[in-house]
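Worked example (supplementary).
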Amino acid sequence: MHTHTNIISYFEAEKMREMQSNDRGSHCFQLQPKMQLSISGMVLKIDDIRNYTKTSRKKKTTNNCKNWRPWPDLPVELLDIISSHLRIADYLKLGRVCWKWRYFFLSSRQKFMASQPPLVLFVSSRAKRTCCFYDIFDFIKYEAKLPYFCCKSFIGLSCGYTIMEDILSNIWLTNPITGHQHVFASMPLFDDCMHICEHTILACTRPYPDFLVVVLSKLHCIVRFRRYRETYWSVYHFAGKPWKIMDMVVFNARIFVITSDLQIGVLSLGSPPDVLLLSFKCTPQVSCCPRFVASNDRLVLVDFIPSVALAVYTIDFMRREWVKVDNLGDQSLFLGDLVTPSLCSTTKWGGRSNCVYYLPFKSTRCFVYSLNGELLSSIIVSEADPIVSPRMNSWYFPHQSYGIDVVRDDKYVGM
Amino acid sequence: MAIMYALKSSDNEIFEVEQKVIEQSETIKKMIEDGAATGEIPLQVSSKTLAKVLEWCKQRQHKTVENENDDNKGKRKKERDEDDDIKEWENKFSDELKADKDVLFDLLLASNYLDLPALLSFLCQLVADMVAGKMPEEIRRMFNIENDFTPEEEKAITAEHGWAFQP
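After joint prediction of all chains, the assembly is encoded as:
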């Protein structure tokens, strides 16, 4: 039977729930039986509670005139199968129906997004606030409205965030799936041109968690970065060096860079910032400077000129050498201009594996190449769509939308 | 002569069914193999739901038997006709479930408990189709789900997806 302490713990649990509901950011709400303990400071007797629950249940049934089934209590394994048939937009709405479904949503979203194919993102010049996402495997189109889109230019995409720059050179980070948004004030400009030709990546710092934006500007020979809580941009100049930094990527909690003479290094975020070059054997002959590929377990580079050259390499850190990759297994490489390319498994969407999906700048077509550089097919992403005259295009990787790459912050931890 | 089994629903109604029909349920198949199914097989499923489950199983059974007996002659055309028949039957079946969501809910739980993968996947697809393109408020109304968010919570959650991903 219930004891006195049980009732007190009920009371506390209810209060806890209230407190947690007020803390909106934390996402750790707890399910508790809904009881109104209205008399402040007094503990209700067990009979009162029984009466209360009895009457409330009675009230409910008379209200509905029908014995409805408890849909919120649908077992998680069934919700799992149901959501596997849903598209992103509908899945997001499922998490807004009731608390129990929201818990399911919060615990399954990472897995759900990982099962979604890469989407093609078009930012149109005609529609100021609308951008479109296309699923090239199912030919489904999504639209998303971005806030205050006017006068901004799209400069890239990283960790599920679209990166835009406004006329005052503020950097806007917007995640169209989670709705999160951050603004980094005024990045110093070197001349009047925008930062379109630059490469921007986003990360989260450790041990002190903060947002980090890193912008590589090949034209000006600088790398700039800023932590969200800081008020200034740190700058690393490489104008005096015999090489240029051509690309960068977050791997193994470090920012790796590749130089124009194919040296690989690590960018230190200390003050002053620095680049530590590492030496690797078997540096290949390449046709252009390879680009880094986002991959969880290995550092991958791709050397690609459409219909001219295609080669994929990985870095063997144990033997300190470049290794050519001849087979991507069931994965394919998704290449575009404004985002770090990514390796994704394509077979479950009926896509080709062991291929390169290439989305040229401003193009409405995607081209599929075999790993030996042969053009296999082209996919028209959007045919005769009036609002699509893309000003910018890019791949959008849903599996990156709920997690940000972590980077060790050298300001607080020695190199 | 087909082997018959007696299934007993939770409200004590007896259903006589052919072995082949009920063996689609992995749960019952296992019970039979383990020798636990002598006499009546008691199931935690109401008679109304069980009748519906068996309706599905018989239809599926019908389909596989006919395919086995088919000659090659005219098989293509026959298959096409059959596919149309099954489609029609499935449409009718799902229309009934859409109209009575209580049966749908009970059937979902029953197919999960009886381990009927084909039925389970069919029902989950049906629910997904029903939910697709609807706003949370419409989904709540459809399944009579109580909105247990406080207005502040709802506002915060809606703001999270306020402008993102309109289908």
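Two points are worth noting when inspecting this output. The interface with chain B takes residues 21-22, 24, 34, 64, 67-69, 71-72, 74-75, 77-78, 81-90, 92-99, 102, 133, 142-147, 176-180 of chain A (CB under 8 Å). Residues 1-65 of chain A have pLDDT under 50 and may be disordered.
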